[in-house]
Write a structure and sequence with these properties.
By secondary structure, the chain is mainly beta. The N terminus is likely disordered. The strands form eleven sheets. The chain has a 22-stranded antiparallel barrel. Strand 8 and strand 9 form a beta hairpin. It has eleven helices and 55 strands. The protein is globular, with a radius of gyration of 33 Å.
Length: about 1000
């Protein structure tokens, strides 16, 4: 027993001695940059444990560690440093800036490469810069921050859509949007918009077709490579919350005249929606109809301030994301749950989004497994698009309110006689409040976006990777409208019929990739790195809709409640490509890199005997600062030149090579079903569009990374454009789809970034300026065709920039003066005239970040100019008498300024200045029947300057939060689009808005609501 006790005592003493040697101690110090300036919020962690902290305002830290532990010091933009804990309790760390050209970029198929290897330009944006103002979509967070990238926000609804363009347009009718790749798998624009921005680790923007040529035709317009968060191995378990609450309000309304009110041809009419009545005089007048009992409503005949603005409410948006991350030596994980609830500026308009993400990695020996998955669900409830007897959008009905009508008075249409269908002032259009309550479009969408990946490190120079991805979206919708009838107060407006439409869609994208990556040295100075593989891309889509009209039971919106036959439509398609590809990069002494790649594609959209294409690309990267080290003796740290060339093809849409049959409504005999051949004929030799691109790039880093410039010039030639042309009438077809024409795109893009100020008191100023200039010219169309109409006055015109606005114009003499008809005094309406391109000459972005102590102020400005847009709103509202032009002459006949008439003959004109011949019908008819027919009047300057985002955040110092178990606490205020400057001639809407996400760029009208701005607060916590 004694012996056993002695043994136990010996073990206990040994254990105590061990504890004394391994006892944890407190290590402290200062983390600074290469100039000795402190780095606040730098991360200090004990490697291989969950123990970590951050530095305070002055770069100080304190952490518990054992002798022999390894401390890791990291900071954004600086190389990570590791230091082993010794006998000293003080460890100071100096971090060096990351070499800009040693930065790792995620390229095609998720392959990571050093930036200096690339023979093309690529830029990366991290999560911190992407979500600085807490945007609802990642596209919004990208605006103005990447050169060459133009994000067009199409509208301002509760779930706005966007268009993503890189270096302009390359096709007349084909797709011009950049390819979206999420975690290595090709995805859709919808999947990108559905991503929770807080889940994104970074976005690598590969510019030009050469950068993404391995993806084939899908990447003809460059690519956005999105990597989501995955957690880090050997990282502590972290729980975080990011919460944002913002308020949205109308930024500005169209600038209309407020001198004349309700009426027609100068006479007052109480039920008119037009503003051709007498001048406002403040007298009490009847408004709306006279009721059966002889009563009516009255109002002062005077303008009401903000009468249209008062229709809109202040919207709200609440976003919350809870996330979990961590890992051990072989595992990493990231999980998040996101929730968004939005109430729009239109009453009852709502949007709800939930996102769930699970990302994980696991290493089993030499095999690495990865899962990246997200599930998205949203619900949209907005006012319908088929409103009233005119089937026009809500904004149209709001705008058709004269300035003397307080629109908000008519909100309670169900209980207030004056607001009811029979009492509403307007005898031609429905009450917009009625539309909000009785006309809804409700949609629910579910999306699963996931990929599974397995990679095997066969040797130290060879890795095999297999990846399976799926992007599955399903949805259903219900669009309905109530009936509206009149009991006799009105006789002119048409009754509105009721209907309900049930719809559904299914969209599935499958991707399968098999890759072999290798990297080894052939000789001491000559190395080779490459990727060979195969991929499959399948896109399946189906949609259907069924409509019931004239519902029998009011308020019961079900297709079983309709009268007469149901109406239905179905659309279904499948598209598939297979590809074999290879990319090889030869390096010499790590300063000269030759990149050669190629892809052989097989597509289902072309005839089987001619459905294969080869995509070659070649590029050269020369790091002059490594080749000639003497360059680094001056201010230049890094100097790189690159050159590349590629040929890629733009694919056709599914079934475009087929002449299809369509169902006839009553052919050949009433109810007997019949079909007819589509009016579009197809060229039997039709093929893909050929896109040849070249690029010259320059990358410079100076003053130890304090200043960096990325610059590029590119030229792209597109041949064999797939265009529907006008055939001979005798062919029996209305259009002929064929390959014609040549487009030439030139683009310049520059990114200048710098650490402008770094002071010893902790004040830092970082700035980033992006400049992009892209223009596409139609060199040739061919086959006797000189222009192609894309619709809505947007054209491709031979010899001119594309897209181009073309519209009816004034006839002018050689001096540019307006030619009038000497009999009427009215300008002569000329032919269609090209009036300007709808893409900007250049886009300038300016992002700044100011840091002092725990405060960070960030902002992004965006400036676009040199382009025009066709304002459908200005055009449509001319008829109503709301335009400022219509009161420019006090509604009297006037002499057209700078006008002339022809006193000679048509063959020998003699132009005489017009000083005495006035227009005919200046009170109204001139404006509605003549001026309104000259569409040149509605082509406006699209220049815009916007404060896209601004954010002020404060991070609590670690000494305040460490004791309560938090590793990060920050609060802030955010704002988006708080300031917008537009030229005086554009008083109507945001020129960035567009009626459709297509190549018809530059058509803005009344299909969107007025522009908005938002502001709010956020909170970010980690522990």
């Amino acid at each position: 027993m004694k012996t056993k006790f002695s043994g136990i005592l010996t073990l206990f003493l040994a254990f105590v001695v061990q504890l004394s040697f391994a006892q944890e101690k407190t290590v402290s110090g200062v983390v600074s940059d290469e100039n000795g300036l402190p780095l606040p919020s730098a991360t200090v962690a004990v490697k291989g444990t969950s123990n970590g902290t951050t530095t305070d305002f002055d770069g100080n830290y304190s952490i518990g560690a054992n002798t022999g532990d390894v401390l890791t010091f990291s900071y954004v933009g600086y190389a990570t440093k590791e230091v082993t804990v010794g006998a000293s309790n003080t460890i100071n760390a100096t971090l060096d800036p990351d070499n800009a050209l040693d930065e790792v970029v995620i390229t095609a198929f998720g392959v990571a490469k050093e930036k200096k290897e690339l023979a093309y330009q690529a830029e990366k944006i991290d999560n911190e810069d992407l979500v600085v103002s807490d945007p609802t979509t990642a596209a919004q967070g990208l605006v103005g921050k990447i050169s060459g990238l133009q994000i067009n926000v199409q509208n301002n609804g509760v779930n706005p859509t966007s268009q993503v363009l890189l270096r302009g347009l390359r096709s007349i009718t084909g797709n011009n949007s950049a390819l979206i790749v999420i975690d290595g798998s090709r995805a859709s624009q919808g999947a990108f918009d559905d991503l929770n921005p807080n889940d994104i680790e970074d976005i690598n923007v590969l510019k030009g077709s050469t950068a993404a040529a391995l993806y084939g035709s899908d990447a003809v317009n460059g690519a956005l490579i999105i990597t989501t968060k995955k957690g880090n191995k050997n990282d502590k378990f972290t729980v975080g919350l990011r919460s944002t609450s913002t308020f949205t309000e109308v930024a500005y309304m169209p600038d209309f005249q407020t001198e004349y009110g309700t009426g027609w041809q100068g006479d007052y009419d109480p039920i008119e929606n037009t503003n051709w009545g007498p001048r406002f005089d403040g007298t009490i007048r009847q408004v709306g109809p006279t009721f059966a009992d002889g009563s009516f409503q009255t109002l002062p005949y005077a303008p009401v301030k903000n009468n249209l603005l008062d229709f809109y409410q202040t919207g709200t948006n609440f976003q919350n994301t809870v996330y979990f991350s961590g890992g051990d030596e072989t595992t990493s994980y990231y999980l998040s749950v996101g929730d968004q609830k939005t109430d729009g500026i239109v009453k009852n308009d709502k949007y709800k989004r939930n996102t769930f993400r699970v990302n994980a990695t696991k290493t089993l020996g030499k095999v690495n497994l990865a899962l990246n998955s997200s599930f998205f669900r949203d619900e949209t409830n907005v006012v319908g698009s088929s409103i009233g007897s005119q089937d026009r959008p809500l904004y149209w009905f709001v705008l058709n309110t004269p300035s003397n009508i307080p629109l908000s008075r008519y909100e309670n249409w169900q209980t207030d006689l004056y607001a009811s269908p029979d009492g509403y002032f307007n005898g031609y259009y429905q009450n917009p409040y009625w539309a909000v309550d009785t006309n809804r479009n409700m949609d629910t969408t579910n999306r699963l976006n996931a990929n599974m990946q397995a990679s095997w490190d066969v040797t130290d120079w060879l890795k095999l990777t297999g990846r399976l991805g799926i992007n599955r979206a399903t949805g259903n919708g219900k669009d309905w409208r109530a009936e509206q009838t009149y009991t006799g107060a009105y006789t002119r407006p048409d009754a509105v019929s009721s209907f309900v439409t049930d719809s559904e869609f299914q969209s599935t994208i499958y991707t399968t990739d098999v890759l072999a990556n290798f990297n080894f040295d052939i000789t001491e100075k000559l190395g080779i790195k490459g990727t060979v593989g195969a991929s499959n891309y399948t896109n399946q889509f189906r949609s259907s809709a069924i409509t019931a009209n004239n519902l029998s039971i009011a308020g019961f919106y079900d297709i079983s409640n309709g009268t007469g036959e149901l109406q239905g439509a179905v659309d279904e398609s499948q598209y598939r490509t297979y590809g074999l590809f290879g990319e090889f990069t030869f390096s010499y002494d790590r300063f000269l890199f030759l990149n050669v790649s190629g892809r052989q594609d097989y597509t289902s959209t072309l005839p089987k005997d001619d459905n294969s294409y080869f995509y070659p690309a070649v590029g050269l990267s020369f790091v002059a600062s490594d080749a000639f080290p003497g360059i680094k003796s001056g201010p230049i740290d890094l100097l790189k030149l690159s050159l590349n060339y590629s040929t890629v093809y733009n694919d056709l849409g599914a079934y475009q090579v087929n002449e299809v049959f369509q169902q006839s409504g009553s052919f050949p005999y009433g109810s007997i079903n019949g079909f007819f051949l589509s009016p579009q004929a197809i060229d039997t030799d039709i093929k893909k569009e050929k896109v040849s691109s070249s690029e010259l790039g320059l990358n410079i880093s100076m003053f130890k990374g304090r200043l960096a410039l990325d610059a590029a010039y590119s030229k792209t030639i597109t041949n064999d454009n797939i265009v529907p042309t006008t055939p001979s009438v005798t062919s029996g077809s209305t259009s002929y789809l064929t390959n014609i024409g040549e487009l030439e795109n030139t683009a310049y893009d520059f990114t200048l970034s710098g650490k402008i100020l770094k002071s010893t008191d902790g004040f830092n100023w970082d700035s980033n300026v992006t400049f992009s200039a892209a223009e596409t010219v139609v060199n040739e169309i061919g086959n006797g065709v000189t222009q192609v109409n894309l619709g809505s006055n947007i054209y491709a015109i031979e010899g001119m920039a594309f897209p181009q606005v073309q519209a009816t114009s004034y006839e002018r003499d050689p001096q540019g003066r307006i030619i009038i008809n000497p009999t009427t005094g009215n300008p002569i309406i000329g032919d269609l005239k090209a009036l300007g391109k709808t893409t900007p000459d250049f886009v300038l972005g300016w992002t700044n970040s100011f840091r002092y102590k725990g405060f960070t102020l960030s902002s992004t400005f965006d400036y676009r100019t040199g382009h025009v847009y066709y304002s459908q709103l200005a055009d449509a509202m001319e008829f109503t008498g709301r335009s400022l032009e219509s009161v420019s002459s006090n509604r009297q006949d006037f002499v057209v300024p700078n006008s002339v008439y022809n006193a000679g003959t048509e063959a020998n004109p003699v132009y005489v200045a017009n000083t005495s011949i006035p227009v005919t019908g200046g009170r109204q008819s001139y404006w509605t029947d003549h001026y309104n027919e000259i569409k040149e009047n509605y082509v406006r300057d699209a220049t815009a300057v916007k404060l896209r985002e601004i954010a002020l955040n404060y991070s609590l110092p670690s000494k305040f939060i460490d004791n309560i178990g938090f590793s990060k606490v920050s609060v802030g205020v955010v704002g988006r689009n708080l300031l917008t400057w537009l030229p005086a001639e554009n008083r109507f809407s945001d020129p960035e808005f567009n009626n459709s996400n297509s190549n018809q760029i530059g058509v803005g009208g009344y299909f969107q609501s007025p522009p908005t701005r938002s502001y709010g607060v956020n909170l970010n916590i980690e522990f």
